[in-house]
Amino acid sequence: MTESSVDSPAGTDVAERHVRELETLHAISGVLAAGSLQKQVLVEILDVLHDQLGMTHGTLMLLSAGGDELVIEVGHDLPERKRQAVRYKMGEGIAGRVVQTGKPAIVPRISQEPLFLDRLHKQRDASGDEISFICVPIAIGDEVMGTLSADRIFNESASLDEDVRVLSIVTSMIAGDVHKHRELAAERRALEEENIRLRGELEDRFCPENIIGNSSAMREVYMAIHQVASSDTTVLIRGASGTGKELVAHAIHYASPRAKGSFVKVNCAALSENLLESELFGHEKGAFTGAIQTRKGRLEQADGGTLFLDEIGDFSAATQVKLLRVLQEREFERVGSNHTQRVNVRIITATNRNLEQAVESAIFRQDLYYRINVFPISLPPLRDRKDDILLLADHFVEKYSKTMSKGVRRISTPAINMMVAYHWPGNVRELENCIERAVLLSTDGVIHGHHLPPTLQTSDASGTVGEGTLQDRVDLFERDIIVDALKRSGGNVAQAARDLRCTSRILRYKVHHLGINHKTYCRGR
């Protein structure tokens, strides 16, 4: 009876190889089960292939983010400099062809293969033996993500097809994790790009050139921003509520060397003493009731960037002492901790209070006042920068027209007169709210006087006398509409009449009755 193949020497070799392959796959599954896919895990997989099956120079390559070239993720005994330098374009070399076709490649003797580019390995090993090369795709379905390749000393009797089978099993084991890794990397890149884009938008939005206003008072503010931005000097921004103190703080930050760091804001008036201390310095777990975990404070969050303390005049006496230490030493302790921490942070403060009076009344510490008042910037109230009202109003009209998808084009002359005559106790914030309301109410693309809040519709601003009769108010309304039509037509009464859907005779009568000089609006005057 003929002896079975299993009992033959060749059959014994095959059986032993299968055992080694199973042991190899079992070891690789253990490596994968030990943790998520990281470069170290992939390196360990290549080590197993080398130690168990004698596959040398194992290399795992992945497609780049653009999908146009292969980059080396990990390589067995491959120097880092070479790993970063070697790349293959789609279809270039054997690896590039494998990715392009999605099919494995076997090269029995790489010295005889013209496609072998010899970028990573020599064509013979150190002893001069010929090298065989095996490369298989890493894919999920029809999506090829990369390749797994390895060398083997050439042997006439060796089954390279068996090596392809083993490597294909390995790639099927890691393909899911590779795919997840690529997706996470793509999400991270997208977030980084979005972060860069948003930071660019913030820099554009908050740079001094984009703060609205061209009055002499605001030009002084711009000059002060440029003078102090390049240093780490502590800045105190002073001004009434609604004048744009936070906007100036942003401008200083984004014009400074700390622009790539965080800009962290703390509204001191909105928090109680205990909450403010925890918010500012952070706290340890169990420091007080409700402190269920350790929490970083705003000082730590702003490390390397800028901390903006709004309404600093509302600090309690105890918090003032701790803040003074931060300003002097850049040191603090979390609530419930004795461990001193240091931070590299620039501090910008703001207040609408009279700090000098607070110091005299012993409400605000004198030493803290001198420490924060190194470089004061005073923002003028809107009533002192009348020249900027129309610029600001036009800016807000454009902003809310886009937000509400309404084609508001301009502000009528009576409405402008009302805004200029008003004293604006709420400053720029009040003006913005008024324009938002007016854009919402506008139906003809123009903001009229009656779209503004009643507080702006004074007799001096609107041109009415006292309370005004019904006829007075009707005349005012008609005058507003006719003036707008004449502006659009360039003083052409006939065209304005067509725009208002009335006859030229009626419109001329109204113009004469209301004392409107249509020639004033003729183009070229």
Can I get a quick summary?
With 525 residues, this protein is of the alpha/beta class.
Summary keywords:
alpha/beta, Beta-Lactamase, disordered N terminus, Helicase, Ruva Protein, domain 3
Strand content: 15-25%
Shape: elongated
The residue ranges in which pLDDT falls below 50 over 5 or more consecutive positions are 1-8, 459-466
Residue-averaged pLDDT:
83
Radius of gyration over all CA atoms, rounded: 38 Å
The end-to-end distance, rounded to whole angstroms, is: 120 Å
The appropriate CATH architecture of the largest domain is 2-Layer Sandwich
Can you count the helices? 19
CATH class annotation of the largest domain: Alpha Beta
Q: Could you tell me the number of beta strands?
A: 17
Number of structurally distinct domains: 3
- Topology-level CATH name of the largest domain: Beta-Lactamase
Strand order of the largest sheet: 3-2-1-6-5-4
Considering the protein shown, what is the CATH homologous superfamily of the largest domain? Answer: GAF domain
Measured as a percent range, the helix fraction is 40-55%
How can the largest sheet be summarized? Answer: 6 strands, antiparallel
Structural class: alpha/beta
